[in-house]
Amino acid sequence: MGVRFLVLAVLSVALMVVDARFEVLKPARSQMSLVLMDAYWITDLPERLWQGVSSQFGSRTELVAENEKLKTENLLLQGRMQKLAALTEQNVRLRELLNSSALVNEKVEVAELIGVDPNPFTHRIIINKGERDGVVLGQPVLDARGLMGQVVELMPYTSRVLLLTDTTHSIPVQVNRNGLRAIASGTGNPERLELRHVADTADIKEGDLLVSSGLGQRFPAGYPVATVKEVIHDSGQPFAIVRAVPTAALNRSRYMLLVFSDGRTPEERANEAAQAQDADQHPGGAAIVPATVPKPVATVAPAAATTPAAATATPVTAKPATKSSTPAKPAAHPVAAKPPAAPKPAAAKPPATAPETTIQGRE
Question: Biased composition, Low complexity: where in the chain (predicted)?
Fold first, then answer.
């Protein structure tokens, strides 16, 4: 038995060395895997049968309770959607009254997290959208709960995003309850933001929602940023210590949204909103506007064409007028060469006037 065990042990070691160093046993291994696949399937069959039976004969009470819960959640979500639709329409009407055509819903694109910066002192991530996908520097990034950061580095197919909690990042925010403006800066802690230079007497308290104010022209206004967690008032200090927790799941979100804001200037937005409002007030305005646009072009072209004609016609008509107004003085105008010189712009008139002048001169 000892000799057999020793022989088998040596043979096993030899097979392992050959398998690790050479590729001779790869075909044999592939064939053995096909043979053993059936054995694996047979050994796993009881567990799969048990799972199938348990799933088929689940508790009816649990299924009914889950169904009722899903119905309730669906009803609540439908109610919220109706309210959101009403608020959106109201916002559109108010913007039309203000002659502003700013977008209510920005264009977004879904991106996926593919990498995290290993440096513990920087909060940066890498997403699978880059310059070829239309991403630009400074583009806002958010998840299902709120703002996450902005794009700081572009590559052809990937981008690097700087998170809100990075120590080098700051964002202008305002308190959603009263509109108080402040600057939220990163602390290096993925679960904390700080509001800098907030007056000790400012109206801010725990639980207030901080949203983006849009004053930095980088992040769109109205998106949730953080929730105030702690407010410390010190009578000896001019500023209060305000700490907030980001609403976005910076350490857990895998899918996020890239926001494409409207690139039009405020003047262009106002002009387009005014044109849209005029079109709504005057149903026929859509047909009148294109007709009035080409009018300046049509009037300018004839003006340019008639100007030389008018300039040339003036001397032609003036000369016959002077000659016909002074028929008694043929000798004062003995020069008969002037009428032939006039035919440059119009060759038909000089022959008619030339005989008249010559006849008067002869008379």
Answer: 272-289, 305-355
